[in-house]
Amino acid sequence: MKKAYSDFRDWLSEHSKLSTKSINNYIGGLNKVSRDLINEGWIKADLSELGLEKLIDTKEKYFLIPEYKQADLKAKNMYHAAFNRYIFYKSI
Asked: What are the residue ranges of helices labelled H in the chain?
């Protein structure tokens, strides 16, 4: 999954003022969400396989699951933030 988000990592480095640590946290968040979705049987590889509309729909459904919503709250909404930034990136 690391390769899947390398373009997103590069884009964050070039187009945001995020620290390297924050960028790594976003990538880690996307990897966790991808693993969760693979385990649920919603995707086969990672979020990069989804088009924009499906990505938005998947995000909404993902955070309706109490286990994932709780994990996001515990992580101070980092998974939500990573998902949102990735959706923005995919929309441009």
From this structure: 6-15, 20-40, 52-62, 66-74, 78-91
**Under a CB-based contact definition with an 8 Å cutoff, are residues 16 and 68 in contact?**
no
Counted domains in the chain: 1
Cβ atoms of residues 37 and 43 within 8 Å:
yes
CA 17 to CA 40: how far, in whole Å?
34
Residue among 37, 12, 39, 27 nearest 83 (CA): 27
pLDDT single digits (tens) 25-59: 999 999 999 999 999 999 999 999 999 999 999 99
Query: Which residue in the block uniquely carries the two structure tokens 């590889």?
Result: 45
Question: Which domain, by its residues, includes 20?
Answer: 3-91
